[in-house]
Amino acid sequence: MKRSALAITMCLTFATFLPAAWGQSVTGKWVGQWRVLDNGEKDRMFLDLHQDKNQFTGTMKTIGHVWQVHGTLTAANFDVFFNPHDAKPRMTGVVSAGKLHLSREGTDFDAVPSTSPADDYPGYDRMPLPAQHDVPANGLAKTPPMGWNSWNLFQSHIDDKTVRQAADVMVSSGMRDAGYVYVNIDDAWQGVRDSNGNLAANSKFPDMKALADYIHSKGLKFGIYSTPGPRTCAEYPGSYGHEEQDAKTFAAWGIDYLKYDWCGARMIYSNTEERPLYQLMGAALQRADHPIVYSLCQYGADKVETWGAQVGGNLWRTTGDIRDEWASMISNIEKQVPTAPYAGPGHWNDPDMLEIGNGGMTDNEYRTHMTLWAITAAPLLAGNDLSKMTPSIKSILLNPDVIKVDQDSLGKQAIPVKNGSVETWVKPLADGGVAVAVVNLGADEAKATVKDTDLGMPGKVKSARDLWAHSDVTFHDGAYAVNIPSHGAIMLRVAASN
Ligand code: GLA
Fold it and tell me: Among 199, 250, 297, 347, which residue's beta carbon has the most beta carbons within 10 A?
């Protein structure tokens, strides 16, 4: 081949190769089907993207969420980030032959160019918000609620059989008799609404009333989950516009506890509009014909601790979701500190459910987790597989003396005094004594000294017991000194002499 002919051939080859590698853009409106929910609803995804060089921004809509996404491209491959602070992409893709080949949470699917204006979810009307009024206290949850919740371990993979098994093990493991009475289903139980607007469970829960009866027959109580929004976090139907009706349905099933999660309400309302929507369900629950503990879950926004009780709430989350990691657990409890004055019988701050036994922390760290939740009068909702508890995990969750501190009728939430990496938390108790937790947040063993003058008790120390070692300890010259391992905690119950 002559040199000129070779050059032309190379140019042509390169030119035909170009569009595949560099010429395709993600700019445009795309439509795909991500997944099918457990209630049979198709979760379609609508993307509206705009690419500028190797970056893009845009909107992603699914059945229950609207995200302002951004992303980067490397040739035909791209990563999608849902939040400005996402460290890792939450969806990946390849653009080729006029399609987006997407992968999200283990599901691979294609999005094609949208051809119809109907490729969108209809918006939701803003419901008029009710005038503010106080919902009277329901008289429930005089001590922090205790039980088990499906989310931390099972997430959306929860069904009737698993919940019945959890109820069985609550009894056989001694959890129920230790005080853990609520068996709570979290997200993903929902079916669809019928023509009268009544919400049914999906096929994983064939008969909610029968499940409630089963749970009640074991001497346990039954909790469920919904949202003030039209869709839950896992995108199932929410109670938006059906508050009264859902409260009645829950009462008719025999539900004893409702966790009400903001999540999908973000599609319509701003964070400062939460109070009236929580009030709406709080009032509806009180009109329903069954006592229902009301658990607010909006991650502590808008200083919920200052109004949670006025909307009828018995507990409210003060933080984002806990993860089964030391740093997450500590961060959640530290965020709880400013809310302490608002805890008391019937209304509790909730730093999220327990991760004890889920495998991401050491037993030493789990002991600290339990210590911190008990000293702060936090709800104790186990989130582990109760049928596979090691003796050590059992001894943590079932320690009666530690549970007694959490459940103390005075209902005080301790706050910490910091000394380097050691924190001392003191919780006044109904009998005039105190519980003391000393936690070592540092990487090395630390020596800690508990002084009777720091305990805020009127008299001197009469007796003290180490609630994890199950032995009495002695204060010498008004002080008790102890070595605490890295990430470890001690917990004392101290009685005062008059
Ligand atoms: C939110 C809540 C979690 C859990 C999930 C369920 O993230 O904070 O506790 O209920 O929703 O989708």
Answer: 250
Three-state secondary-structure class, residue 91: strand
Mean pLDDT across the chain? 94
Contact 380, 354 (CB under 8 A): yes
For ligand 1, atom 6, name the residue with the nearest CA: 187
**Beta carbons within 8 Å of 5's beta carbon, 6+ residues apart:** none
The answer, yes or no, to whether residue 381 has pLDDT greater than 50, is yes
**Cβ neighbours for 265, distance < 8 A, ≥ 6 positions apart:** 227, 228, 229, 230, 238, 240, 274, 277
Strand (E) or helix (H) holding 165: helix 160-172
Q: Give the C-alpha distances (Å, rounded to integers) separating 193 from 158, 160, 218, 235, 277.
A: 20, 20, 30, 14, 20
SS3 248: helix
* 146-406 is a CATH 3.20.20.70 domain: yes
Task: State in Å: Cα 73 to ligand 1 middle.
Answer: 31
Distance CA 423, CA 436 (A): 10
The rounded Å distance from CA 475 to ligand 1 centre is 44
Q: Copy the structure tokens of residue 382.
A: 């186990």
The residue whose CB lies within 8 Å of the most ligand 1 atoms, and thus the one to mutate among 156, 321, 323, is 321
- Residue 72's φ and ψ, nearest 5 degrees, are -130, 150
Residue that wins the pLDDT comparison between 460 and 113 = 113
Task: Report which DSSP code applies to 465.
Answer: E
Cβ–Cβ under 8 Å, residues 477 and 360: no
What single-letter DSSP state applies at residue 414? Answer: P
Fold of 9-116: Lipocalin (2.40.128)
**What residue spans in the chain does CATH classification 3.20.20.70 cover?**
146-406
Whether pTM > 0.70 for this model: the answer is yes
In this structure, the residue with its CA closest to atom 9 of ligand 1 is: 321
Instruction: Determine whether 120 is an active site residue.
Output: no
**What is the pLDDT at residue 459?**
80
Every domain of the chain with CATH number 2.40.128.120 lies at 9-116
Q: Is 261 a catalytic residue?
A: yes
Cite the residue boundaries of each domain of the chain with CATH code 2.60.40.1180.
415-496
Q: How far apart are CA 26 and CA 11, in angstroms?
A: 26
What's residue 23's pLDDT? 59
Q: How far apart are CA 220 and CA 293, in angstroms?
A: 14
Residue 116 CB contacts under 8 Å (≥ 6 apart), including other chains: none
Q: Of residues 321, 363, 454, 466, which has the active-site annotation?
A: 321
Say yes or no: domain 415-496 is CATH 2.60.40.1180. Answer: yes
Angle between helices 208-217 and 243-253 (to 10 degrees): 50
List the Cα angle 237/207/250 in 5-degree steps: 55
